[in-house]
């Protein structure tokens, strides 16, 4: 018995390359784009291990948990790492990055997360990119959460290694990711004797055996379902228009923030300034005496599909996330999440105004 999702013909190198070209168009880049067969942690780690090693002096910006992870990887590679940490309720500034360069003039590698979905903030990459170019450092960017929700422009911003994933604002699968690589980054990797080779983490394998070979022969059998799903979500973004997709995410963020403030019950935005808030997800601080993970569990009792989650780790006690990305960047998802949070807060004996929340969200969306 045949099945359309199981009995698939092999994915050709030509089609694989065509999908990579669509990713390049999405990013507006002329850099090489490599599609990696795994969740975005694969190219995120692979890029650091390829481009950094003993002798690398890195400036690692921490605005959430992923920035912390990148610092760990860099140290594990033998790099000297200077962290710039800011409170998770805010964003880093280009001025703070320049101050760090002045203090550490030998920095030659900068790692940054664009949007931290885990903490709900987003960083001004275009301005930071100017500072990095002035420094002459290699610029590594995690744009996994931001792509599709806000502009991601590696060429315009001087990003040398830009990693994206399809599972958030792009509305695609989690099992496939991509990275754009500048010529400077390839040169850095090639000169690094510690860069992974003949390894699933190796970007140089893709460079030498795929790109330099004219993209004629794949390194291994591609994950067909994930590749076809990536192709489908790229087609959907192209059909809707990237500007429209980003506007939908921006509206969802504005509506969620406004609705949460109007709801009351002690709920307030976790990211203080609206300009620092990511369009991919809105984080909210729960009132004193309320445990966020328990509040979310109650809010999801009637509808487990709502885009609600508690913060990770220590943040699970104080933070609620509304993950309004991809198919959940809609008024219905926002209203549903706010209504469920309102009911859960009311269950705690707190005064809430669901009608005001709905009206504020509708006004903000418009």
Nutshell version of this structure?
This protein is an alpha/beta fold and 366 residues long. 43% of the residues lie in helices and 15% in strands.
Instruction: Give the count of helical stretches.
Output: 13
Could you give the order of the helices and strands?
HEHEHEHEEEHEHEEHHHHEEHEEHH
Number of domains: 2
Instruction: Kindly name the structural category.
Output: alpha/beta
For this structure, the quaternary state is: single chain
- CATH class group of the largest domain: Alpha Beta
Terminus-to-terminus distance:
50 Å
Q: Return the CATH architecture of the largest domain.
A: 3-Layer(aba) Sandwich
Indicate the percent of residues in helices: 40-55%
Shape, per Cα inertia axes: globular
Largest sheet: 7 strands, mixed
Q: Give the full name of the CATH homologous superfamily of the largest domain.
A: Type I PLP-dependent aspartate aminotransferase-like (Major domain)
* Strand ordering within the main sheet: 1-9-8-7-4-2-3
Strand portion: 5-15%
Low-confidence stretches: none
Number of strands: 13
Mean pLDDT figure: 96
Reported by name, the CATH topology of the largest domain is Aspartate Aminotransferase, domain 2
Q: Using only CA atoms, what is the Rg?
A: 21 Å
Task: Summarize the SSE layout with pairings.
Blueprint: H1 13-27, E1 32-36, H2 41-51, E2 57-62, H3 65-76, E3 80-85, H4 94-103, E4 109-113, E5 115-116, E6 121-122, H5 125-135, E7 138-142, H6 154-157, E8 161-165, E9 177-181, H7 183-190, H8 203-211, H9 224-240, H10 242-263, E10 268-269, E11 282-285, H11 292-299, E12 308-310, E13 319-322, H12 331-347, H13 354-365
Helix pairs in contact: 1-9, 4-5, 9-10, 10-12, 10-13, 11-12, 12-13
């Amino acid at each position: 018995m045949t099945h359309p999702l199981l009995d698939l013909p092999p994915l050709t190198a030509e089609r694989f390359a065509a999908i990579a070209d669509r990713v390049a168009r999405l990013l507006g880049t002329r850099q090489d784009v490599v599609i990696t067969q795994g969740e975005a942690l694969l190219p995120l780690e692979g890029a650091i291990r390829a481009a950094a090693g003993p002798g690398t002096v890195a400036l690692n910006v921490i605005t959430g948990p992923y920035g912390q992870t990148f610092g760990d990887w860099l140290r594990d590679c033998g790099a000297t790492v200077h962290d710039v940490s800011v409170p998770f309720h805010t964003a880093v500034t280009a001025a703070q990055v320049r101050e760090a360069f002045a203090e550490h003039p030998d920095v030659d590698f900068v790692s940054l997360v664009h949007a931290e979905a885990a903490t709900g903030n987003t960083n001004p990459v275009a301005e930071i990119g100017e500072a990095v170019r002035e420094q002459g450092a290699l610029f590594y960017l995690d744009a996994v959460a931001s792509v599709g929700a806000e502009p991601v422009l590696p060429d315009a911003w001087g990003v040398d290694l830009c990693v994206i994933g399809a599972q958030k604002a792009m509305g695609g699968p989690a099992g496939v990711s991509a990275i754009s690589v500048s010529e400077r980054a390839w040169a850095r990797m090639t000169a690094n004797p510690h860069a992974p080779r003949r390894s699933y983490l190796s970007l140089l394998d893709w460079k030498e055996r795929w790109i330099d070979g004219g993209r004629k022969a794949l390194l291994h059998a591609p994950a067909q379902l994930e590749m076809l799903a990536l192709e489908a979500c790229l087609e959907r973004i192209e059909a809707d228009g990237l500007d429209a997709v980003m506007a939908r995410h921006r509206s969802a963020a504005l509506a969620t923030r406004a609705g949460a403030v109007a709801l009351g019950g002690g709920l307030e935005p976790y990211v203080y300034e609206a300009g620092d808030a990511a369009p991919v997800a809105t984080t909210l601080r729960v009132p004193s005496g309320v445990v966020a993970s328990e509040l979310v569990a109650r809010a999801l009792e009637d509808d487990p599909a709502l885009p609600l989650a508690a913060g990770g780790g220590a943040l699970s006690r104080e933070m609620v996330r509304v993950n309004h990305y991809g198919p959940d960047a809609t008024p219905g998802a926002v209203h549903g999440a706010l209504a469920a949070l309102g009911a859960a807060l009311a269950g705690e004996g707190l005064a809430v105004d669901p009608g005001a929340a709905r009206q504020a969200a509708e006004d903000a969306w418009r």
